[in-house]
């Protein structure tokens, strides 16, 4: 390194003697202020365990008693045990009643199984009101049409002993009731409520069965036409046809209004 003439030479600092056996400390390079680690602050003194817990915290309780012990003790403060006892009693009584009724005869067993299946279906469909309404009305329609068909057959048998009664009308009404139920749910975009559609179709079907009591040949065809008409009117196809007819009428009105010969 060049030295300016006239300036004295700076004396070198003498090296410090190192004692044998001691290690040399590494050189530390100064870091910028942004990269320097934060100065560790003294940790706040922690409160003792006795005072750290909130004063409103509940005290530790003993482990819960086993379920059987809780059920046998029937403590008034234990709501679970108090409510469980009457439920078990009513369940056992209901099970005994069902088994007693079902063991009387074959028809009673069939009726009990049907009632249980119906109750299970009602429980599963409790949130789908439209489907539940449709199923309930369909069951009523099947019962009424079967009754009216049987009354008509009995009346014809009393009037004419040689008349042949097949009971095919009842099966026809039942098939039409199923057709109404399925037809309401087969339409993808139904404009109205499907349950109301089934109710209307079943009402017309019951009326047709009443007519079939006096005119056996006209009962099932009349019910078929009625169910088909309700499904067509309440379906999306009828809505589309009505929209097209309304558009055609509007076009005719605009043509008549713009025709100069009418003025």
Verbal overview:
- The protein has 263 residues and is mostly helical.
- The protein contains 9 helices and no strands.
- The protein has helices at 49-52, 67-73, 79-102, 106-124, 129-159, 168-186, 194-214, 216-234, 236-258.
- α5 packs antiparallel against α6 (168-186) and α7 (194-214) runs antiparallel to α8.
- The chain is flat and about 150 Å long.
- Residues 47-55 have low confidence and may be disordered.
Strand content: under 5%
Number of strands: 0
Tell me the series of helices and strands, N- to C-terminal: HHHHHHHHH
Q: Report the total helices.
A: 9
Shape: flat
Write the layout of secondary structure elements.
Blueprint: H1 49-52, H2 67-73, H3 79-102, H4 106-124, H5 129-159, H6 168-186, H7 194-214, H8 216-234, H9 236-258
Supply database-style keywords:
mainly alpha; 263 residues
Quick overview of this protein structure:
The protein is mainly alpha-helical and 263 residues long.
